[in-house]
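Dear Dr. H.,

I hope your travels went smoothly. While you were away I took the liberty of generating a structure for the chain from your last submission, since the lab meeting agenda had it listed for discussion. I wanted you to have the full record in hand beforehand rather than looking at slides cold. The sequence, exactly as received, is reproduced here:
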Amino acid sequence: MRTIRTLITGITVVAAGAGTAAALATTGTASAGTATASAKVFDLAAHQSHDSAIDLGANGFSAGDEDLAVATLTRGGNRVGRLVLSCTTAHVGKASADQLCEFVMSLRGGQITAAGTVRAGQSGPGTFSLPILGGTGRYQGAGGQISVTSTNGGTVPIQVTLR
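The corresponding predicted structure, in token form, is as follows:
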């Protein structure tokens, strides 16, 4: 199950960062059929820099374990912020695992928070979306979602829909 833990943590960390970077952008375009006219869609990249796993449940990967991580956020090759996240494993089954994750993205002018659940199987979580819950400063009242397609690599592409 350690493979599932690694995939969930690496992919989720990157997903969270995407929401932050998107809020920094000053222009964007709405995707047909997926966003309202007032929504902005941004493509970003997240780069995990630090990750710690804390084995709090039963020995090995199990319910109660915590993953803590930090990622650098980039857009167009430029660093736009950083993200700190915590994921708690809620359930580990024979073929999949579920985690509840909370992200806090620190940016010039404020912070953005996103949270939700991620389910991964032996080949990772595939594509998933998480809600943006709000923010502080210039991001107060932020909403929307982040969509991540796992790459099982160091850089993960993310699409952010900000409303």
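Two observations you may find useful: The CA atoms of residues 70 and 84 lie 5 Å apart. The beta strands are 40-54, 66-75, 78-92, 96-107, 110-121, 127-135, 144-149, 155-162.

With kind regards,
E. W.
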